[in-house]
Design goal:
The structure holds two protein chains of two kinds. Helices cover 35% and strands 24% of the residues of chain A. By secondary structure, chain A is α+β, with helices and mostly antiparallel strands. Chain A has a single domain, classed as Ubiquitin-like (UB roll), CATH 3.10.20.30. In chain A, strand 3 and strand 4 form a beta hairpin. In chain A, helix 3 packs across helix 4. Chain A is globular. The termini of chain A are far apart. Chain B contains ten helices and eight strands. In chain B, strands 3-2-1-4-5-6-7-8 form an eight-stranded mixed beta sheet, with helices on both faces. In chain B, helix 5 links the parallel strand 2 and strand 3. The chains are: A alpha+beta, B alpha/beta. At the A-B interface, strand 4 of A face strand 5, strand 6, strand 7 and strand 8 of B.
């Protein structure tokens, strides 16, 4: 019975036009955003929408992701499904249900 | 040729890597840029392993605040040049190798000359300006640059091989902000030893290098993750180099 119920929940989820995106945050981002978190986004959302939603969850997250002008900070490494997303492609990077997005702010010390 | 003493000194690793590879280590020249939290463990392990020629470059003098992590510098060394302080300890560990101590900041002007003839470069610096300079020198000489960096409990390592992997500018087109980072000594130790390990693998040809893979160390839960990398065809630093390699392969 449980299995049947789970399927119908997934159906409901899709009917609402939502998709689940898993976000993995590394290094300093992990302390603020959590190691793994799941976001329910409207279908056809892109990567920049996801980043705005993450930023809207806390002021700390917003400052980590965006500068004073609201530009995504240049040093952040973005991966979708383990593939690097070049800076120029972020605007047109669409996401699909089940995608995994990784965020890594590189460390620099020695 | 290895001396009898060398065969004895390195016997525990020769049984694993063979005499030929021990000779490769002996004839290798490794330039370690930075004698700080990363450079110290790198230098200790490469000297102990019998890398025959090590150049240590660092612009700074030892400060009390260095001693929590920079294990080659001791209380009595405060105020001394780091490169010389490191050289003294390494020669006590292994007097059979040669070590150059260079006190200078790696710059666009001197980096190519400082790394000329080297087998590989270890990027153990604490700033991205210097790291980009090493990356360029590695491209000029077509030698690997083993990059490592740390902050707090986090660290990363990758092995950059011109023509085979993404270069430092492909991976990190823009430097992270900040100039002084908190570090737990063990984080620098772990990352430095991984860099030394990559160097030994490269010189001996045994094992798989961290090529186009960024190893992420997370000391919170002691976990390791990897990010897959690839050369950026638009990279201003290495795209000409990529073209040369690709056209070279076609010939």
């Amino acid at each position: 019975m449980q299995g049947v119920q789970r399927i119908s929940e997934e159906d409901n989820f899709r009917r609402k036009g939502l998709m689940k995106i898993l976000v993995r945050a590394f290094a300093g981002f992990r302390d603020v955003m959590g190691e793994r978190s799941s976001y329910d986004l409207p279908e056809n959302s892109d990567l920049s929408t996801l980043l705005s939603i993450i930023a809207s969850r806390s002021e700390e997250s917003r400052i980590l992701l965006f500068d004073d002008q609201g530009r995504l900070r240049g040093h952040i490494i973005l991966m979708v499904n383990r593939k690097r997303v070049p800076r120029s492609a972020i605007g047109e990077m669409s996401l699909s249900d089940g995608d995994e997005v990784a965020l890594y702010p590189p460390v620099a010390g020695g | 040729m290895l001396t009898d003493r060398e065969i004895q000194r390195y016997s525990r690793q020769i049984t694993f890597i063979g005499e030929e590879n021990q000779e490769r280590l002996k004839s290798a020249h490794v330039v370690i840029a930075g004698a700080g939290g990363l450079g110290c463990p790198v230098a200790v392990y490469l000297a102990a392993a019998g890398v025959g020629h090590i150049t240590i470059i660092d612009r700074d003098r030892v400060d009390l605040t260095n001693l929590n992590r920079q294990i080659l510098h001791w209380e009595r060394d405060i105020g001394r040049e780091k490169s010389r302080s490191a050289r003294d300890k390494l020669l006590q560990l292994n007097p059979e190798i040669s070590i150059d101590a260079v006190t200078v900041a790696a710059s666009g002007e001197n980096a190519v000359a400082l790394t000329k003839g080297a087998s590989l470069i270890i990027d153990a610096l604490d700033n991205f300006d210097g790291r980009y300079i090493l990356n360029r020198a590695a491209l000029v000489h077509t030698i690997p640059c083993i990059h490592g960096a740390v902050c707090g409990y986090d660290g990363h390592v990758t092995t950059i091989i011109p023509g085979e992997t993404a270069c430092l500018k492909c991976i990190f087109p823009e430097p992270p902000a900040g100039s002084e980072f908190p570090v737990i000594g063990t984080t620098a130790g772990i990352i430095g030893i991984l860099q030394a390990h990559e160097a030994i693998k490269y010189i001996t040809g045994r094992g798989e290098l961290l090529k186009n893979r960024l190893l992420l160390w997370d000391g919170r839960g002691s976990t390791i993750s990897y990010l897959d990398l690839e050369p950026d065809p638009l990279c201003r630093e290495c795209r000409e180099f990529q073209k040369r390699i690709i056209s070279g392969e076609k010939d």
